[in-house]
Amino acid sequence: MRIRKAINPAVVPRVSREACRACAVCLARQACQAKAIVIIDRGEQPFVDPSRCYGCRTCTTVCPHGAVV
Asked: What does the pLDDT average to over 17-23?
């Protein structure tokens, strides 16, 4: 069983609607070890599920369009 500490909601990244290009293969989603970046329907922009996010911010450095802020 993995114990997670609560993180500050201000630390959770978000996907910028203006910058996101809804890539066919979302690199930020692939890099997220917590699987916190969720895509509901193909072609739609992803979002970050704050209940899954560890706050590591790996996704912010991986997105080629700088959409995860």
From this structure: 95
